Amino acid sequence: MTNPQISAETIEALRRIDSATVANAIEHFEVRDPVSGYASLELRCQFPEAEPMVGFAVTATQDTTSAGDDRPNRLHDVLDMVAAAPKPVVLAVQYTGGDRMRSCLAGDMFCSALQKLGGVGIVTDLGSRDFQGIALRAPGFQLFCAGAVVSHGYGAYTNTGTTISIYGLTIQPGDLLHGDANGVVSIPLSIADEVVEQALRVLEVERSYFDFLASDEYSYAGLKKRMGREE
Q1: Cα separation of 55 and 2, whole Å?
Q2: Pair 161, 170: CB distance under 8 Å
Q3: What is the CA radius of gyration of the chain?
Q4: Rounded-to-integer distance, Cα 13 and Cα 196, Å
Q5: What are phi and psi of 184, to 5 degrees?
Q6: Is 193 annotated to bind ligand?
Q7: Is the CATH number 3.40.50.720 carried by domain 8-198?
Q8: Do residues 157 and 73 make contact, with C-beta atoms less than 8 angstroms apart?
Q9: Binding positions for Mg(2+) (predicted)?
Q10: What is the SS3 assignment for 36?
């Protein structure tokens, strides 16, 4: 099941475009402030050589570092949400505990399970582990996280299906997320089809720019003209 607003063809087309170009294309439509809609450099892509991740957000919050925690972990609630959500799915999880630098969300077992349920990646401000195992057992699954943490602690999901914020990127359930080695950006659903077309135009403009730099027609005046408007 895919989101009825977005065709499988659009999802596949977006997977062939890098995230930086997608971000440039979104700016053309002026649907949001250009300083919003993307995560900061604190979010680390663990598999930068993988193709772009494109999927619809399933959201949750989690705590993994509260000593003596005996709350239900609510893992089955999250798995049920992933299984029922439009595909492909990106699980987006914000940390709500007291020691985020020691938090750990995912390993190879969890990522393999998510992939089996139609997940294509995780976006989180928690740590994770088993990076080699994920690459081996869930090839193509992407992971954006804060870094490596060796122990999973005790993971309790504190909320599900809510609006969250991960390193400056506000994520609502069902948001369309695009991520690669450049970072993660949210694509407004209302312009997803148009973003593909605009991104192809952006790539053509950039191709022309690089051809100009390499050509005998290069000039400093021409460079300044191509580098943007004057104030």
Answers
A1: 10
A2: no
A3: 19
A4: 7
A5: -125, 135
A6: no
A7: no
A8: yes
A9: 130
A10: coil
The tokens describing 199, both together, are: 């991104």
Residues, the chain, total?
231
Query: Is 33 part of any known ligand binding site?
Result: no
177, 90 Cβ separation under 8 angstroms: yes
Encode the chain (231 residues) as per-residue pLDDT tens digits: 567 689 999 999 999 999 999 999 999 999 999 999 999 999 999 999 999 999 999 999 999 998 888 888 999 999 999 999 999 999 999 999 989 999 999 999 999 999 999 999 999 999 999 999 999 999 999 999 999 999 999 899 999 999 999 999 999 999 999 999 999 999 999 999 999 999 999 999 999 999 999 999 999 999 999 987 554
Q: Are strands 156-160 and 127-128 parallel, antiparallel or unpaired?
A: unpaired
Whether the bond between 88 and the residue before it is cis, its omega within 30 degrees of 0, is: yes
What is this structure's pTM?
Answer: 0.94
